[in-house]
């Protein structure tokens, strides 16, 4: 009787473990979408409230239309990601495929809005501070110098995001595992914009963009660790992500603060 009871107990424990594993397999990507939304909100909400107060106090120019467009498109992308992962977790593959067409339009629109935003934002500051006293103008010049380096981050993020989304959409029919991981990884690419606004985290900027590539590892960790546990290997989606991000990261560090970049960039950013 004792042996029979022990066997039943072992089967129950094993069954619970299998059920939990299956549950996580199904919902891990929904969790990742929610996790990324939380990161964006934690980074941007306090910063945005501070900037709104600064605009109201006349300490900075009003937000340009391009900024509002970029925010709406980014919010739409995050909601699309959450919707798509939830549809797959609940077995609604047909709806997922139909809605996926939106990503083909939304991704390039988001990048275009970001590319337009970079010079628009800088030029608004130049116009806002025109004729300012010499002391204030020196501060503005320092800000523009820093934002010229930040433009490198924004351009890199747009390029890498669009490339990873393209690779993900290309793989959607032949390799669903690669597709869903690359979409998540593509969404992680612009998260440094949120992490950089978290003042409670240590940062290497403006001296170096090192933490730009360090803090997003927090966003990658849950999915990567679960994949390592389930597959006992690194899925090739992470190697593709590294192949895109490492070379561009090296280029970013080489150009950051360089005399060449600061001699050519102002001409097309805010000159």
What labels describe this entry?
271 residues, 82% helix
How would you describe this protein?
The chain has 271 residues and is mostly helical. It has one domain. It is built from eleven helices and no strands. Helix 2 runs antiparallel to helix 3. The longest helix is centred in the N-terminal third of the chain and has 55 residues. The chain starts with a helix and ends with a helix. The model has no long low-confidence stretch (mean pLDDT 90).
Layout of helices and strands, plus pairs?
Blueprint: H1 2-56, H2 65-89, H3 93-99, H4 101-128, H5 134-170, H6 176-188, H7 192-195, H8 210-214, H9 216-231, H10 236-255, H11 259-269
- What is the 3D shape? elongated
Total of domains: 1
Biggest beta sheet summary: none
Distance between the termini: 86 Å
- Unreliable runs: none
Short description:
The protein is mainly α and 271 residues long. It is built from 11 helices and no strands.
């Amino acid at each position: 009787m004792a042996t029979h009871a022990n066997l039943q107990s072992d089967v129950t424990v094993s069954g619970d473990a299998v059920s939990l594993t299956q549950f996580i397999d199904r919902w891990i990507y929904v969790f990742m979408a929610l996790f990324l939304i939380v990161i964006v909100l934690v980074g941007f909400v306090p910063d945005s409230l501070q900037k709104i107060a600064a605009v109201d106090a006349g300490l900075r120019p009003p937000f340009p239309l391009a900024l509002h467009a970029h925010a709406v498109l980014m919010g739409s992308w995050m909601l699309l990601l959450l919707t798509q992962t939830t549809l797959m977790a609940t077995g609604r593959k047909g709806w997922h495929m139909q809605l996926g067409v939106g990503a083909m339009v939304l991704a390039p629109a988001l990048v275009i809005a970001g590319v337009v935003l970079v010079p628009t934002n800088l030029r608004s500051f130049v116009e806002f501070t025109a004729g300012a006293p010499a002391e204030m103008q020196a501060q503005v010049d320092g800000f523009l110098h820093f934002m010229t380096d930040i433009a490198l981050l924004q351009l890199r993020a747009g390029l890498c995001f669009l490339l990873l989304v393209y690779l993900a959409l290309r793989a959607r029919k032949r390799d669903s595992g690669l597709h869903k991981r690359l979409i998540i990884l593509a969404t992680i690419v612009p998260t440094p914009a949120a992490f950089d606004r978290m003042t409670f985290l240590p940062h290497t900027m403006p001296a170096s963009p090192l933490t730009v590539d360090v803090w997003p590892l927090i966003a990658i960790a849950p999915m990567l660790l679960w994949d390592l546990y389930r597959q006992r290997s690194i899925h090739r989606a992470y190697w593709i992500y590294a192949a895109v991000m490492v070379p561009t990261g090296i280029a970013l560090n080489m150009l950051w603060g360089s005399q060449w970049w600061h001699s050519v960039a102002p001409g097309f950013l805010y000159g």
